[in-house]
Amino acid sequence: MKTIFKRVATLILFLIGLSILIGMSDVYFANAIQNLIDSIVDLNKSKLYRYIFLLLGFLCIQFTLNFSLTIVASRLTEKFHILIKQKLVKYLINGNRHELTNMTSSEKLNLFEYDLELYEQYYFQNLISLIQNIFVLGFSLSFLFMTCKLMALTVVIATVLVIFLPSFFGKKIDYLTSQYSSSKSIFLTKLTDIISGYDDIVSFCAEKSFYMNASHSIKKMEKDEKNMNVQLGILGQVISTSQYMTLIACFCVGGFLVFWGEMTLGMLVASVQITNSVIQPSQQLSTSILEIMGSKSIRNKIDQIINTQAIKIDSDIEMTRQVKLDKVSVNSSENKKLLQDIELTFEFGKKYAVIGQSGAGKTSLLNLLAGNYDCYEGEILIDGSLYRKDRGQLNVTYVRQSPYLFKETISKNVTMLSNHQTREINDALIKVAFFSDKNIDEIAVDSLSGGEKQRISIARSYLKKSTFLLLDEISSSLDFQTKQTVMTNICEAMKGTVVFVTHDLSKEVLTLVDQIIVMNNGRIVGMGDYRTLLDSNLLPLASTE
After folding, report:
1. Domains (ranges, CATH) in the chain?
2. SS3 assignment, position 477
3. Could you say which of 34, 112, 317, 481 is the most buried, measured as most Cβ atoms within 10 Å of its Cβ?
4. Is the pLDDT of residue 8 over 90?
């Protein structure tokens, strides 16, 4: 967050400068009003005319200052919004993979839908309000002390009470705000499930149960919002009542002082006018303090994300010659063993097939190599150096079984919005994806079959030319002939290391690789080429039949 504030420091300084000038102009206005009324009481026409013209000039200056303040505040808000939203998008793209994987789509959207909105409205906007009002409050109180110390003391006592009143409500509102954020995130998750799983819900006649489940979440969310708004409303009424009491007290004190001849009528009107310049900023200061305190949990959440050190993304990482796993074990969040004592060495340029029955640990091994696990036992060595995710030592491409295609053209899906020459794109589409249609970008991505989507994903990996390619059942949606051609082309076209998971135990596929890794219950139970494993009777361990 400090880096963001540093980048908007100039605008903040302009905001402070304009706030100081506006605070001084408010004091001048009260002083001019005092002299105007005194000139009326004294029947002094020349003095009256002079202050009328001065007040008209003041209005022009006040308009200019407030207009400039609006422009600066709007520009500051715009720049802040851009910077903080860019930080959040960057986190969603290259933040902690394990952490992001455990977040639902609704939780990620809720960062922008509610959490960020709350952060901006309850924190940043209130910081601007604090800057604007603290100088007005300071200059106004200074004028009051110079005019009438007794009235100033009355206003100060009331103002202190109004400003510190939120401290009694802050924790409660922080708790209610956090509850509302949580319940809204839960509701968005259920709504996403309904939208994404509509066909299955209808097919299994589960409309009523999903409706009841969502209705419960709606009631909980709305109840939490009501509780939060009620608490905010109570505080607002308390602050409003205290301000009226302050104004009444000032009139009473000022009235007695006029009766006793210690204050002129003009001074009374000016003091009451400047008291308004104390009451309104104090109210806004009180509200700002309250909302800043009430947004603490959400603020900490956003700050933690913004301050997260992003994992380096470097397309110019040096070629990885060797990846070694030394007695690596991985447990799930339920403390279930996913991988146990894995000892493997992957050499540059070689091709590896990982086989095994469902639940053997094949996909877990790919996730480990992809850097998706933060906690593991043992060591991962990259060219002899201990692997550290934050250094970006390994240029890994992970092609998943069910790739996601973006709402873009097929060419942009292949390039992943990066710049590539048309010849390179066509080469990838033809060589490994087998798309030869010249008008390919006119084809809607939604109309592609599962096998065609997988071929697009394979073309992505070919175009990226990564030094370490992971493929998870990428041929599962392909017919036999296409599968053979795709696997052959990948093994021939990819110059780096290729590791792919497959359930296909055919000779045509397994003879394409340099080494086959057989897994069972999270362990390596055998390694070798196709002939070695066939002779040692290890292939049946990977059979799903």
Report:
1. 2-306 (1.20.1560.10), 322-542 (3.40.50.300)
2. coil
3. 34
4. no
Helix (H, G, I), strand (E, B) or coil at 501: strand
Query: Are 155 and 141 within 8 A, CB to CB?
Result: yes
**Residue 184 to residue 166: CA distance in whole angstroms:** 25
SS3 365: helix
The Cα 446–Cα 161 span in angstroms is 62
Q: What are 108's two structure tokens?
A: 């990620």
Backbone dihedral angles phi then psi of residue 97, each to the nearest 5 degrees: -65, -45
Helices (H), 168-206: 170-196, 198-203
Helix H or strand E encompassing 339:
strand 337-347
Contacts of 529 (CB under 8 A, 6+ apart): 511, 513, 514, 515, 516
**Above 80 in pLDDT, residue 393?**
no
pLDDT for 319-371, tens place per residue?
678 899 999 999 987 788 899 999 999 998 899 999 988 889 999 999 888 88
Tokens of 222: 């709305």
Using pLDDT thresholds of 50, 70 and 90, give the confidence band for residue 318. low
Strand partners, 472: 501
Q: What percent of the chain has pLDDT over 90?
A: 10
Q: Which amino acid is at 476?
A: S
What value does the mean pLDDT of the chain take?
80
Measure the CA–CA gap between 30 and 274, rounded to whole angstroms.
Answer: 6
- Residue matched to tokens 């996913």: 338
CA distance 526 to 515: 10
Q: Which two tokens stand for residue 462?
A: 């070919």
Please, which residues have CB within 8 angstroms of residue 312's CB and are 6 or more apart in sequence? Answer: 390, 391, 392
Map residue 462 onto helix, strand or coil: helix
pLDDT tens per residue, range 31-89:
777 778 878 877 888 888 887 888 888 888 888 988 998 899 889 888 888 888 888 88
As a whole number of angstroms, the distance between CA 488 and CA 513 comes to 10
Q: What is the pLDDT of residue 293?
A: 73
| 3-state SS class at 397 | strand
Angle between helix 125-147 and helix 45-94 axes, rounded to 10 deg: 150
189: tokens are 């998750």
Q: Which amino acid is at 354?
A: V
- Tell me how crowded residue 445 is: count the other CB atoms within 10 A of its CB: 17
Among 124, 130, 173, which residue's Cα sits nearest to residue 285?
130
The torsion angles phi and psi of 346, rounded to 5 degrees, stand at -110, 120
* Helix, coil or strand: residue 204: coil
Interacting residues of 236 by C-beta distance below 8 A, sequence separation 6+: 287
Cβ burial, residue 457 (10 Å; 0-12/13-18/19+): buried
Strands annotated E in 264-321: none
In single-letter form, the type of residue at position 214 comes to A
pLDDT, tens digit (0-9, with 9 covering 90-100), for 474-500:
766 666 777 777 788 778 777 888 998
Taking the mean position of all CA atoms in its chain, how far away is CA 199?
31
**Largest CA-CA distance found in the chain, in angstroms, rounded:** 119
